[in-house]
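Human: I would love a firmer grasp of how sequence relates to backbone shape in proteins. Take your time, and here it is.
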Amino acid sequence: MNSKYLSIILSIVCGITAANMYYIQPLIPTAAKLTGIDYGIISMIYTVALIGNATALIFITQMGDFVNRKKIISSLYMMLFIVLLFFYIFDNVYILITISFFIGLGACVIPSIIAHISTNKTSGIVVLAK
């Protein structure tokens, strides 16, 4: 695939992933009303997911320089599959809050993929291109 198109596709995927973490915020009052759960408790799902994402960006993404990135990416996808399945199955809000941390961890798979695909030869070309 042409590197120009790959860069465009990956930029869109990164944007959607980042937006997904933030577009949930306006839906929290509706979710609280529909589920009958207190706003403060249900908003913790969103907050803990962001904490998980920040933790992953600080620690897991950096491991790609020392550990095989393919192993990190496949491990993150497996973890994400399992925790999303658990998120679907469980209905206890406190379990969902815990699971959301791991969903946030798994969201860092996109920067790991981009770091794996990019090479030193093509690094910076997209940023500097006019």
Observations:
- The chain is about 75% helix and 0% strand.
- Residues 3-128 form one domain.
- The mean pLDDT is 81.
